[in-house]
Amino acid sequence: MGTRFQAFFSHLRFLALPFALLFLQHPGAQAGSYDDFFTAIIRDNPGTITDLLRRGFDPNTPNERGDKGLLLALQLESDRVFFALLQSPQVDVNAHNARGETPLMLAAIKGNLPAVQALLARGADVNQPGWAPLHYAASGDTPQHAQIVKLLLEHSAYIDAASPNGSTPLMLAARYGSETIVQLLLQEGADPTLKNQLGLTARDFALGAEREHTAALIDTAVRGRGQPKN
User: Fold this and answer.
1) Where in the chain is the domain with CATH 1.25.40.20?
2) pTM, to two decimals
3) 113-230 sits in which CATH class?
4) How crowded is residue 216: how many other Cβ atoms within 10 Å of its Cβ?
5) What is the dihedral of CA 109, 99, 174, 77, to 10 degrees?
6) Rounded CA separation 147/142 (Å)
7) Cα 200 from Cα 44, distance rounded (Å)
8) Which of 59, 72, 119, 132 has its CA 20 to 30 A from that of 111?
9) What DSSP string describes 120-182?
C-alpha cells in the first residue's frame, strides 16, 4: 500500500517487538503463566498457548496496554498462536483494542483471509458501528483484500457503512484500494453519490489520489443511477 494509505491509517501502526516485550505482571494471573502467555504470542509458539489454556489460563487476559491475545497475535502476525487461541470456547472474538479495532478488522486490513474465515465461522461481528471490517478490507490493494471484501458482503456486511466522519468503504477503496475492489463494491450496490462530513464523494477520494481511471469508473456508476456527476 502507498504512503498516503499509511498516513491516513496512522493509528494502525502495529506494535514493535521491543515494546511488545515490556509486559507488566497482571494481577489476575500467575506471574509465570502471564509471562509465558505473551512470550508465546511474540514467538508464535502455539504449544505453550495450548498448554496454558488446558491448565485454565484465561485467553482474554490483556497485556499492560490492554491488548488481548487474539488481537496481539494478529498484530504480530503470529498466525499459529492465533489459531490456537481461536480453539478456546472462551476466547472473545469481538474483543476491542484501545483504538476500537476488533480481530476481524485487523485480519481484514492485513489481508489475512484464513483468519477472516475463521473469525466469521466463530460469529465475529461484521457490522460494528463506526469503522467496520469492510472499511479496512476495502482499503487494501491485494487479491486477498478483494476476496475478504466479497466474503464480508456475503456475510451481510453493510456496503455503505459510515465511518465516524461519514466515509464509506467505497470512498476508501477509491483512494487506497484496488480497482477490483472498487468495481466489486459498485457491482454489489455501493452508492457512489454519498458524501462524507467534508462533502467528499468517492469520486473526490479517487481524484485526490490522482486515480483518474478509478474516478471514471465511479462516474460511469453515477450515470448508471441516472444522477448528475458531482
Assistant:
1) 1-101, 113-230
2) 0.84
3) mainly alpha
4) 12
5) -10
6) 9
7) 42
8) 59
9) HHTT--S--SSS-HHHHHHT--SHHHHHHHHHHHHTT--TT---TTS--HHHHHHHTS-HHHH
What Cα–Cα distance (Å) separates residue 104 from each residue in 124, 156, 191?
7, 14, 24
What's the fold here for domain 1-101? 1.25.40
Q: How far is Cα 207 from Cα 43, in angstroms, rounded to an integer?
A: 43
Amino acid in position 127: N
| pLDDT tens-digit series, residues 18-51 | 434 443 344 444 557 999 999 999 999 999 999 9
Mean pLDDT by 10 residues, the chain (230 residues): 50 42 42 89 98 96 93 97 97 95 98 98 95 98 98 98 97 97 98 97 97 96 71
Amino acid, res. 83: F
* In 13-54, alpha helices (H): 17-20, 31-43, 46-54
Nearest to 143 by CA among 185, 180, 173: 180
- Report the alpha-carbon distance of residue 171 to residue 168 in Å, rounded: 5
CA distances from 214 to 38, 91, 186, 200 (A): 43, 41, 11, 15
Q: How far apart are CA 133 and CA 103, in angstroms?
A: 9
SS3 194: coil
The C-alpha cell at 18 is 521491543
For residues 155 and 45, give the distance between their C-alpha atoms in angstroms, rounded to a whole number. 31
Does residue 126 contact residue 120 with C-beta atoms inside 8 Å? yes
